[in-house]
Amino acid sequence: MKIPLSSSGGPTMASYHSENRCTWCDGCGDYGIWTAVKRALVEMGIPPHSVLLCYDVGCHGNGSDKVQGYRFHGLHGRVLPFAAGAKLANMKLPVMAFGGDGASFSEGIGHLVHSIRSNYPIVFVLHNNGNYGLTTGQASSLTWQGQKMNTSPNGMPEHTLPSMDFVFSLEPTFVARGFSGDIPQMVDILKAALQHRGFAFVDMLQACPTYNHFATHNYLLERCYHVENHDTKDFVKARQLAVDTKEKIATGILYQNEDIPSFYEQLVPRQKIKTTLVDEVKMHDVGGLMKEFV
Amino acid sequence: MARSSIKIVGASGQGLISIGEVLAKAFKRTGYCVFGYREYNSLIKGGHGSYQIDISDVEVRSSEEQVNVLVCLNHHGFEHNLHDVKDGGMIIHDTPSWQFPAEDVEYLQTHQIVVLFLPVGEVLGLLKAKPVLGNMVFSAFLWAAFCGDQKLLKSLVTEKFAKKPDVLELNMQVIDQGFMLCASMQCSLAIPKPSKAWQQHLLLTGSQAMGMGIVSAGCRLFAGYPMTPASPLLQYIADVQNETGMVIKQAEDEITAAQMVSGAMFAGTRAITATSGGGFDLMSETLSLNGIIENPSVFVLAQRPGPATGLPTWTAQGDLLMAVHTAHGEFARCVMSVSDSDDAFHLMNEAFNVAEMIQSPVIVLTDKHIAEGIYTQRPYDAKKTKIARGRLVTKSSDLKKLKSTDRYDPSTVDGISSRWLPGADAATFCAQGDEHSGDGTVDESAANAIAQMDKRMKKMETLKLLIPDPEFFMLSQTGMAVSPKDQQTELLIVGWGSNKGVIFDSIEALNSDPALAMHPPIGYLHYSYLWPLKTDRLIRLATQTKKVVFIECSYQSQFLQLVKQEVPGFTAEVIRKYDGRPFFLNELCSLIKKQLSPAA
Fold first, then answer.
1. Domain A21-293 classified CATH 3.40.50.970?
2. What is the pLDDT of residues B557-576, one digit of tens each?
3. What is this model's ipTM?
């Protein structure tokens, strides 16, 4: 079956416009990321019908019907394997997945680990606001220790999960960090991520004006700086930059390795096949397979 | 009908599978129908396992309780399996100077069971062969005793060791020795005459059958996490990936497998996952998701006895109600079950067709007995099989006409709206896990909630019209045959899944039972499609019989429960089993006989 999945160029920001009104709080970092995603796609010349945007459950996921494009809004913590499955089925389709810090570092942390390990050729945008916003401000594993949150009135007893150190321990092939208050830089990061060979992990630090009273917009604004003169191939330096956020927070593309093939490229049976799995749905002759059993 | 059976018993890792497989294939190639059944524990080395093959010139689909020949690869067989031998049967073993206790000696004498010691160690010593080749001594001896063709055995073994010429030569010598041993001991075992009809048939497991069915149906991605008895399917599909070009993913867990498959189906290919009960529990949230985003998806649920880890390497039908009811919320789904190597192949394309036609999840049940059972199968002919993709819009002219709100348009008469794929040049939509309006916009209004629930649940009615009635079988001159017409019966048996084979064999065997002088007509109603449940034919047939009996491998007789849920006041007798073992032929025959006797 041949399914026309062609793209015709020339998208504009209007192409991605949805009539549905945003429901985020004033000052929410989701506005900035939402805008940057649309701009990156427009600047890449990708029209809405040529992209799949996959949303986890959380405040960011409530943006799933505030934009054009083929979209999926699934279960809490499970967005990555769905996005990876869709991508493997149609390698011609750019696939972006979005998830919060609760979904990605608690409920679905296993999926994050194995998506990095498998190096699926998709973009993952971490909406990192340091708490569970949509369920009204409970602590996530990235909430600072000691913070008083909904359901932890005495402060968080556990230490904060060192997310960047953890990600680097998994030998990622692309790590970037953006800030929801800096749209032009996020656009640059997302464009690079969309062109990356394998799994692109993009940590977007975002303000949550309602529930996050520790890493506020102003806090992030004061500390985030564009990393310059940094060799993105230097894994050790990249890890240091990513982990060390005490005084200043380095943003931009921190690490990229294009030498590692993606999961799909590693598959022996797919080496010389140009079609996608979507193109290949037809009756397959099993005459050859039956011979073994006679 | 003449049938013979061999059971090889020993510790896991001793090679009982090698002997069983070689003999099974040799019998099939000679012209016998073979049915193979394995028992083993959840461990790699040790334990006590068995590989039984039942052989006949006519069709066999079940295992006998007692066998003609018992092969003991260690002395534990004497302790565990002495009573598994028929009167006048034979035990072959290689345990030197074994002394049976007095009561066993008496048992053997009473039942006229011959015990034969094979000097396997001596043969191996003579050839300086490793102990592992002891299996081949047994295989060759047994094959020779059944008047087997030495050339045929050698060519089979040559195929097996084609890539290991050094091992092959020694195997050939062992075969010669095995045959000589048999000649010197003048051992001969009775077997009916072969029938050429079986020679070109396939000898394969239910998992291999299902795997080929999946490939044939145009499925291009398989994601799974190992769990018995679903693992052999993953293993087969993975083994043939270089031939099929499929993407195989051993996922990090069952949730991942279910989500990947859902994503791949959403993108527009055909994808599948398989697991057992515990893994399916983990997949249930994804099942619910596919219900609301109206995503076609196929899940294979290979049953074993639970709860929890339960009996990991044994069989059951205790997950039927879970398949029908699991996952939160209310949504349309189809549950079907395979029963043998034939429908394990053919139902797979049907599963995908139904999934794509109703844009909802389909659960295909199987069990350990089918997954690891060894069947003699007519070569598959998929020429008449068609791929049906339902309301999938693919033409660019049609795509241009689509509006975003067409995707989940609640005004469709049958609940099924247009579906189109990411990447298609058309209006876009959101596959929305929250309750939504036509284009996937979140809409929590009461009116929309009703409209969308009504839309999705309408699919159950549509599905009920789409799926076939259960099949009714009666005895014909050539054995059990489909009867399109309803018929009067003395006893109506109702069943599903792997019990079909032993029910067929039992009805045929009872027909030739001289004790049953009247030969009362017994009918069998077999359900392949279990949900939504079609009960019209069951109700009609139940009015034309003296007694209805459900045969099931579950404690609660779950299928009867389901029928009662749909047909209030329905009653039936039950024959059930829940010890992890399938029904054996003689066992089921006497249970059915009891139902026929006036006293019951």
1. yes
2. 999 999 999 999 999 999 99
3. 0.96
